[in-house]
Amino acid sequence: MEKYTHVFQGTAFTSKSPKEVQVLKDHLFCINSDGIIEKIIAPEDTDYQPLLDLYHGEENFHRLANGQYLLPGFVDLHVHAPQWAQSGTALDIPLNDWLNTYTFPIESKFSDLEFAKNVYEDVVSTLLANGTTTALYFATIHKQASLLLAKICAEKGQRGLVGKVVMDLPDQNPAYYRDADAKTALADTEEFILAVRELAKSTKQGVFPVVTPRFIPSWTDEALNGLGELAAKYDTYIQSHCSESDWAHGYVQERFNKNDAFALHDFGLLREKSVMAHCNFLNEQDAALFAETGTAIGHCPISNAYFANSVIPISHLHSKGIEIGLGSDISGGFSPSLFDNARQAVMSSRMLEDGVNPALPAEERGVPNSRLTIDEAFYFATAGGGESLSLPIGRLAENYAWDVQIIDTNLGFSKLPIYNVYENLHDIFQKIMYLVQPENIREVWVQGEKVHSR
Ligand code: GUN
Ligand code: FE
What we know:
The protein is an alpha/beta fold. About 40% of the residues lie in helices and about 25% in strands. It contains 16 helices and 19 strands. It has helices at about 50-55, 95-110, 115-130, 145-155, 180-200, 220-235, 245-255, 260-265, 285-295, 300-305, 315-320, 340-355, 360-365, 375-380, 385-390, 425-435; strands at about 5-15, 20-30, 35-40, 60-65, 70, 75-80, 130-140, 160-165, 165, 205-215, 235-240, 275-280, 295-300, 325, 405-410, 410, 415, 440-445, 450-454. Helix 3 runs parallel beside helix 4 and helix 5 (about 180-200) runs parallel beside helix 6 (about 220-235). The mean pLDDT is about 95. The site of fe (iii) ion has 6 residues, from strand 6. Catalyzes the hydrolytic deamination of guanine, producing xanthine and ammonia.
């Protein structure tokens, strides 16, 4: 019989389809030395008992305790790592003012590598402790500090996709925080890509460079063209913000006389490996272009409540064939938890469906068929994120990475309300999605390695 690096026995939840959660009750999960799920064995399979006999009592056999469950690790498609330093504050003014008043000043401090190290170590550890095993990060304009973030992900065992931010347009960015010019921004980006590719060679779980123009209002055309070329040359991921707020959306219309999606496409920035944050104001043509190019939406429901001036019709956009995952958008979104964001995704979608102005008659108030279920929000936080990044992550299935969170529903001080040992497992799943706190996340594994425990 095969020799596995780890064997886990327990009950797991994983998305079978966007709308359906599959329960794998008391299954065996066999992990190989690459950190991949090589085999999943159900209790009724003939090799279940022989494998149990072989591994039982071994150091690499992990039997989940009563009340513990496995979930796939979360994939956060949009995090501003430096903004962790102001999370939970500065949410009182509109997007453009917020950037200039709070966010550019704090991001500019990351030229100081000591400060950067403190914040970046904390944000990576915090996301891991919240069950996020893969994160798509914006760093800052600073090449060295951005590389430091990639190194910290590599060391702490998180799968990090990291971008040095590009913002070079003098009249939209303050002199104290912008790239010197397009040429420097492109040269720094290319050096950053090469350095992260080098780091990736010794990083088991993977670390990836991301071409990261901040958003259309922050770049010159020259930088935009060059970044599209760099992404194509090195086949990198691309991330940016797209059609986020009335102001950002309007700015792009004024400058290019088109929506963000087509403007981004003109610069070669919509590709299979592109993830665009927010996307609240996509129209039907924009949506078709996203689907056609394989561009994914990083849906940031908490942040959107503050800055996006609208609720994005996720259910509709998903029905158009667009890949969608969830993003925390720290610190536009205050929470580092994709549990919190999944909850908000459901609540916002219900408000979109019903509408919010009680002065209107019910039939005119909302947008029908907008609701998301918690099962769909879970899909976006896991498998949807994995598909958006075209990586084998976000599902507990054979040939996927062993990226998991072990949830304990039975903790004395943070116990979930489960009073019947035979409670329906789908109900337990829903309680987990709505009620888990970081304390309940007892272990987190990435690519077959334990990276967090409490
Ligand atoms: N648009 C440009 N930069 C940002 C940012 O840092 N956060 C959000 N939410 N939107 C942006
Ligand atoms: Fe953002």
